[in-house]
Design brief:
271 residues, disordered C terminus, binds 7-methyl-guanosine-5'-triphosphate, Rossmann fold, Trimethylguanosine synthase, single chain, disordered N terminus, alpha/beta, SAM-dependent_MTases_sf, RNA cap trimethylguanosine synthase activity, 7-stranded mixed beta sheet, 11 helices, RNA_cap_Gua-N2-MeTrfase
């Protein structure tokens, strides 16, 4: 554990691990508790060790909640997604980030391009229901010098945005997947994702713009994605980092390569 990082209360109580349902109501033995704590700590160590992959400017004072360590999109992936947005949205770039967290994606999306031919500046409405994360997002956006292109709104996107029909040029969502426990099952059930399922997120996204991208677990159930692709075609992109598959980004509308003439559609590939 690096100096200055205390063990969060949630990990001390084992709240991050899945609740164990013992058949008989046995008292938890001390050794079980210690094992749980050790497991939680090694999980936290793993995420903390990746801090410079999450933020190249981490040492300039990036602020995160403990949950953010596993929710934040690693910077190379968020920059890659942002460059896809820039290359596909040429005329206007008003973007909604539905679950903005401490800002990894909103900040990348608000970044300007190195390409001098790109004249349109992006503007991001970053929606986040946790007030502390909103404060941290504003702070982190200042560190990346994009705060003039990010508006942070404290709200649940599903309460705030339904009345804003077709307002945005594109929508991005990196929703909660239920914490690191998503790794325990070989296939991730997108219909059971809480508080909002993948279908609900695409539905809200498409209400706001045809151009939607959603960051999902690498183990997402492809049959469930194929069902969503029956409504509008999707491209599923694997995001690899240092030789490991980290996440999937699912694009629709103008953001998807499959909507160009030559590329195969996702529903074609599934047959
Ligand atoms: P991971 O698979 O939990 O960890 O998260 P790790 O150590 O990168 O996996 P390993 O097998 O390579 O060792 C991988 C990435 O998924 C994280 O960096 C986040 O970008 C993303 N991620 C993980 N979780 C639990 C969430 C989540 O709940 N919501 C969102 N939006 N992203 C998540």
């Amino acid at each position: 554990m690096p100096p200055g990082l205390a063990v969060p209360a949630a990990l001390e109580t084992g709240a991050v691990s899945e609740p164990v349902q013992a058949p008989l109501r046995k008292r938890t033995r001390r050794s079980d508790r210690t094992r749980d704590q050790a497991r939680s700590l090694s999980m936290l160590d793993r995420y903390v060790a990746q801090r410079y992959v999450l933020w190249s400017r981490y040492d300039l004072g990036i602020q995160m909640t403990w949950n953010s360590f596993y929710e934040v999109t690693p910077e190379p992936i968020s920059l890659h997604i942002a460059s896809r947005f820039r290359s596909k949205l040429k005329d206007s770039m008003l973007i909604a980030d539905l679950f903005a967290g401490v800002g990894s994606n909103a900040i990348a999306l608000a970044g300007s391009s190195d390409d001098a031919r790109q004249t349109v500046e992006p503007y991001v409405i970053a929606v986040e229901c946790n007030a502390s994360k909103c404060r941290m997002l504003r702070h982190n956006a200042r560190i990346y010098e994009v705060s003039h292109r990010v508006d942070v709104v404290i709200a649940d996107a599903f309460t705030l945005l339904p009345r804003w029909q077709a307002v945005f040029d594109a929508v991005f969502a990196s929703p909660p997947w239920g914490g690191p426990n998503y790794r325990r099952r070989p296939t991730y059930n997108l219909d059971a994702m809480k508080p909002y399922s993948a279908s609900e997120i695409f539905e809200l996204g498409w209400h706001l713009s045809p151009n939607v991208a959603v960051l999902l677990p690498r183990s997402s159930d492809e049959r469930q994605l194929a069902r969503i692709a029956e409504i509008r075609s999707l491209e599923i992109e694997e995001n690899w980092l240092h030789g490991r598959l980290k996440t999937l980004t699912v694009y629709s509308g103008a953001l998807a390569e499959c909507n160009s003439e030559s590329a195969p559609r996702f529903d074609d590939k599934m047959r």
